[in-house]
Design goal:
The chain has eleven helices and 15 strands. It has helices at 4-16, 29-40, 96-118, 156-169, 193-201, 221-233, 251-261, 273-280, 283-288, 296-300, 310-317; strands at 20-24, 44-49, 59-64, 69-70, 80-83, 126-132, 144-145, 177-183, 185-188, 191-192, 215-216, 218-220, 239-243, 249-250, 292-293. The strands form four sheets. The chain has an eight-stranded mixed β-sheet with strand order 4-3-2-1-5-6-8-13, sandwiched between helices. The chain has a three-stranded mixed β-sheet with strand order 10-9-12. Strand 5, helix 3 and strand 6 (126-132) form a beta-alpha-beta unit. The longest helix is centred in the middle third of the chain and has 23 residues, at 96-118.
Length: 318
């Protein structure tokens, strides 16, 4: 028989069904998968974007961060905002200009939403922000990292993510519930990490980065989208949670399992860190580093993973 706590959580979940959810960055890899999953859970989904894209089945409102503009009516009836917008971390080398773009696209967008909501009546009850395990630093070794681990104060990604989260935390001043999902390496057949690694794996050219001993804390996109749905539906979920699967693996293990899943050999020597530095610049520090991150907190909040092991996740995707 279900416990009183379980019944209580289920009651909260049922109450939150049918919310209207606004997603920034909704046309991206995570945003599109999440939009579909939210609709499957009886939520209404609308997007906030820089432009309207033909063919998208979601009502899209326009914003212009540089001009402090959000289209009128954007927040009408909205109960929860999911903030995914942000320039792609791995798309370009981290020049000074690119670092500013990465920061502004995340932080200034959240501030614009805050200013908009603080100046008018609204029905927003939750602000759910994407974050990243990069907050812990480029390389935390073998230590199992929980949400209580202090943010790194030196690495670019850690500083950026700390500022990103601080901007999200400000929404609590408006009596809005704040959730921050610190996302690991997202596995999807539509893009992201696998899209970069698969061409090499399918040719039998997989090669570990640096020492290959650094940990990769990954998550299947289905589990990630389900986690976001939980944060919308369960009003008891608040604060920071690591969005990673229960079993992180080393970089060498990841690439060996990927090669085995594609039916190809794994035999090449590691790619030296100096070569990564020549190819990627400062980003090489993040690629050659790693974090062994715990998901215990989100499990204790009631989340159940569908894909706990990397091999199962890759078999599903490939």
């Amino acid at each position: 028989m279900p416990s009183g706590k379980t019944l209580s959580l289920n009651f909260v979940y049922i109450l939150a069904m049918g919310s209207k959810v606004l997603i920034t960055g909704g046309s991206g890899l995570i945003g599109m998968a999440l939009s579909k999953r939210l609709e499957e859970n009886s939520h209404e989904v609308v997007h906030l974007s820089r432009m309207k894209k033909a063919g998208l089945p979601y009502t899209t409102f326009i914003w212009d961060i540089d001009k402090d503009f959000i289209e009128e009516g954007t927040f009408d009836g909205v109960n929860a905002v999911i903030h995914l917008a942000g320039a792609n971390i791995a798309e370009k080398r981290w020049t000074a200009k690119r670092k500013k773009e990465l920061a502004d696209s995340r932080i200034m967008g959240a501030r614009l939403i805050y200013d908009h909501l603080s100046s008018r009546r609204h029905e927003v009850k939750a602000f759910i922000s994407a974050s990243a395990i990069g907050i812990y630093g480029y390389d935390t070794g073998d230590e199992l990292i929980t949400e209580d681990h202090p943010a790194d104060s030196h690495d670019f990604l850690a500083i950026l993510t700390r500022q990103w989260e601080a901007t999200a935390d400000a929404f609590s001043e408006l009596k809005i519930r704040v959730v921050k999902l610190r996302i690991g390496l997202v596995l999807s057949k539509e893009g992201g990490l696998l899209k970069k690694l698969l061409p090499f794996a399918r040719l039998g050219l997989s090669s570990a980065f640096g020492t290959g001993r650094q940990f990769m804390s990954w998550i299947h996109i289905d589990d990630l989208t389900e986690m976001f749905v939980m944060t919308v539906s369960d009003e008891t979920v608040t604060g920071a949670y690591n969005a990673v699967a229960p079993n992180p693996v080393t970089n060498r293990e990841f690439l060996k399992i990927l090669a085995r899943t594609t039916g190809m050999p794994y035999f090449l020597p590691n790619t030296p860190k100096v070569a990564l530095r020549l190819m990627l610049g400062e980003m090489a520090e993040a690629v050659a580093g790693g974090n062994r991150v715990s998901c215990r907190k989100i499990i204790e909040a009631g989340f159940r993973f569908k894909y706990k092991n990397l091999e199962d996740a890759l078999k599903d995707l490939l």
